[in-house]
Design brief:
Layout lengths: L5 H13 L12 H10 L8 H18 L6 H20 L17
Helix pairs in contact: 1-2, 1-3, 1-4, 3-4
Length: 109
């Protein structure tokens, strides 16, 4: 099996974090956890619009933190553990309904 690309690994991290018990702290993911997710979930479902926004928020957060153009699986795991889904949700407006998000046609954008 080939190694999934960075957005696919970020999606795995989001899904693994969301599947954890909400009453416990976020899981401490490892790159091996992300790889295993794709190996045991063939074929994974496509990302929902909310998941896509969370993935982009995670990737942009890492980019802002590191000022680099490359992202490692370790950085995905660490950043998600440090910031958590609530921060990424706020950053991405992922909880808003798609029809309430600004669009390029929206004069308020």
């Amino acid at each position: 099996m080939t190694t999934p690309d960075t957005p696919a690994l970020a999606l795995a991290a989001i899904r693994l974090t969301r599947s954890a018990d909400a009453s416990s702290p976020p899981p401490r993911l490892t790159p091996a956890d992300l790889e295993a997710f794709w190996q045991r979930t063939p074929p994974p479902a496509p990302a929902t619009p909310r998941e896509e926004r969370l993935v982009h928020a995670l990737l942009y957060q890492i980019g802002e933190d590191t000022h680099r153009n490359t992202i490692t699986p370790e950085q995905l795991c660490t950043t998600l553990h440090v910031y958590g889904l609530p921060h990424l949700t706020t950053r991405s407006a992922a909880d808003e309904a798609p029809d309430t998000l600004p669009t390029p046609e929206d004069p308020t954008v």
